[in-house]
Design goal:
The structure holds 2 protein chains of 2 kinds.
Chain A (H helix, E strand, L loop, with lengths): L1 H4 L3 H15 L2 H16 L11 H22 L5 H4 L2 H7 L4 H22 L5 H11 L4 H8 L3 H18 L4 H4 L1
Chain B lengths: L5 H18 L2 H7 L4 H41 L5 H14 L18 H13 L16
Helix pairs in contact in B: 4-5
The chains are: A mainly alpha, B mainly alpha.
């Protein structure tokens, strides 16, 4: 607990952003952050001596999200929270909420994906990099796709993060 | 093969953004963030308060469970045994049992056993689920 209490503002800024990226939603980000911080201090997870506390918290959040995503694939009801539309949720009723939630989540994600890509309508190279990343490409393969070198790729990655952050300061699902 | 879902594509993009954030300098992270240091620390304090609160509850629950366990152990260890009744119960149990080697004490019918040993024996028998009064299973090996 002591280590966390001593973290400076920049560290908290990073933790906040990591949580927002991992959940893509401001409301869920709060829960994820607090869950990871709790696990960091209750002894469930141990921070190695040589690891930065912020990275440790990030990795903890990541493992929570991965575990949830794994169970969502089997029973996707949790993702319903991300949809965020109370009327739709209420109208759905108790009949197979998992399948309905997954369908809504997929529709909403497709919509957000399109909006995020359109942020780069003025920059086809960066858009291509973004599409490549979404298709699980990285490194040389990604450079080849966009016709750029490693420095160019780093510049594009930074540009993507900054522009998307600016367009969706509270998470994609919150602002979409 | 699992079909590609737009939520998975978004997740990959989010991971790339997290990775880029790791590589971003403190100065840039500060510059990019619209919140003041004060606002950031207020939000951090809220997170820590929530964690502290949960930790406190978890400790309370653990202490309650430990106390409950201690209580039940202590209650079992300090059962007041009426020694005359205990001898009668043992004697009944020995004579009711169908197994010849069930109780090594059978040969002496509890004679020569100290009160303390007798109380311990009754407790151990009960712990093992042996019904000394012959109202339940009686001989656990029988039937």
């Amino acid at each position: 607990m002591l280590l966390l209490e001593e973290l400076p503002a920049t560290a908290w800024r990073r933790i906040k952003r990591f949580a927002a990226y991992l959940t893509m939603s401001a409301a869920l980000a709060d829960d994820l952050r607090q869950e990871a911080l709790f696990r960091a201090v209750d002894g469930t997870r141990h921070c190695p001596r040589n690891l930065d506390v912020v990275i440790f918290v990030y990795q903890t959040m990541r493992s929570i999200v991965y575990a949830e995503r794994k169970s969502d694939r089997k029973q996707p009801t949790v993702q319903l929270e991300l949809v965020g539309d109370r009327e739709i949720r209420e109208a759905m009723g108790p009949d197979d909420p998992g399948a309905e939630a997954l369908m809504l989540m997929t529709e909403r994600s497709a919509e957000i994906r399109m909006k995020i890509l359109s942020l780069f309508d003025d920059d086809e190279t960066t858009k291509l990099v973004m599409e490549g990343i979404m298709a699980e490409m990285e490194g040389e393969e990604l450079c080849e796709l966009a016709g750029i070198d490693a420095t160019g790729l780093a510049t594009r990655r930074r540009l993507i993060r900054r522009r998307v952050d600016k367009a969706y300061p509270s998470g994609w699902f919150h602002d979409a | 093969m699992t079909p590609e879902r737009p939520q998975d594509e978004l997740q990959r993009l989010a991971e790339m953004m997290a990775d880029d954030l790791v590589r971003t300098s403190d100065e840039d992270v500060e510059r990019e963030d619209g919140d003041s240091d004060e606002a950031v620390m207020v939000s951090a304090a809220k997170d820590l308060a929530a964690v502290r609160n949960r930790l406190g509850k978890a400790k309370l629950l653990a202490a309650k469970q430990a106390a409950k366990l201690d209580q039940s152990t202590a209650a079992r260890r300090h059962t007041v045994v009426d020694i005359t009744t205990a001898r009668d119960r043992l004697s009944n149990a020995v004579s009711n049992t169908t197994s010849t080697n069930k109780f090594t004490l059978a040969a002496r019918d509890g004679q020569g056993v100290s009160d303390e040993d007798l109380a311990g024996l009754i407790e151990d028998a009960e712990d093992l689920g042996i019904d000394l009064d012959g109202q339940g299973a009686g001989d656990p090996d029988a039937g």
